[in-house]
Here is the input.
Amino acid sequence: MLEAILFAYGEPMEREKLSTLLGVEQETVGALVESLKDEYARQERGLMIIQQQDGRVMLATKPQFGEIIESFIKEELKGDLTPAVAEALALVSYFGPISRAEIDYIRGVNSSFILRQLLMRGLVERTQKGHAYLYTASVDFLKHVGVSAVTNLPDYRKYQDIKQKYFENLSVEVTAPANDVSGGAPEPVPHTIEQS
Amino acid sequence: MYEVRTQEFSGPLEKLLELIEERKMDVTQVSLAAVTADFLHYIEDLKKELGDGSAAQEIQTRFLADFLVVAAQLILIKSKALLPQLELSEEEEATIQDLERRLALYRDVKPIFATLRLLWTSSPRAFTRSSLYQFQPVFYPPPNVALQDLSAALDGILNVLQQFLIESDTIERQLVSLESKIDEVITMVSASAFRFSDITGGRSREEIIVLFLAVLHLLCDRLLRATQQKVFGEIRVATSSQEH
Here is the structure.
């Protein structure tokens, strides 16, 4: 039934909603999703489950069939990314949820404009946490790179460790300037980095 | 758009790393001191590249600001390298260490940028089925709708729209010709001298103004004489030969 619901819905669905529809506890939803993933892992299945960092799931075709599907569905052309866009997108996908201040700290440049671009292109999503905004990769991003979840990005764990190593001993607080051009509420000064 | 241009340039950390790696050095205070001059030159070049113009100014300033922060830190490092006996405050030491850390972090994290670009351009993608994919827009009226209802509805909309149409009436503008007024004044004054207030009765404001202009013109051409006893007082108009 989970499969049927996800197929019909056509959008990422929250765990709570699934729990209500299926009439089970949320933990059970988690287990059901995992068993569906296992089912799809079998080679002959053509679908996979895309999962966002907040737990929302949706059905998608496996990337290995991407080429043949592209032959009859005309999607946008895959242009190259500018270096700045690639940097911001990489940081959001590998280290999301991440604040603009942290992105600026790592890149060494102000990223408001780039983040606003990415928001408008629908490649990045934003949620509010306290006074700050946290950025995460969107479903569109995952679809585009053919990855079912950010945790499946190449060497994902390795980079989590790297980030951990550097931010562990950080005594300097990462501060954000008062005006966030990406269109969000002003981020307060100072802003401490939280351990993931 | 100007902001897009700044995307083509490497940021300060990237540039710094580039300079250090060019010399096949590691990220240390020594190497940072070594590349300080080059980095400062780069900023000068950037300023020239980014160009001038008021629109560019704000963006240029913001972009360069990030460079200046790093430049300041580098100069501090360089100073320390040149003057080993130089004592730095705790804050200054922390700043230096922060630059070293940021640079090392950038270096270690950098590979994901290339990975992502590769994934983006060459990885085959996944497709999803949006739920409304099947649905084509269709006109779906309720069963008891008759032609009159549709017609009445359309009329209703048009009436509402009327309110938004700016009302335009043709306003006839009365153009009063100076020449005709000059002729008038000449005719009147030839008959007899007159007082200006006597001839203004029953005339529109525009007419009176042009009449007055006509009098001024004729005065100018010395075809008339006019007298006024006091400010804003009566004006007597007469020809040169007439009695006032």
Q: What stands out?
A: Residues 127 and 133 of chain B are 13 Å apart (CA to CA).
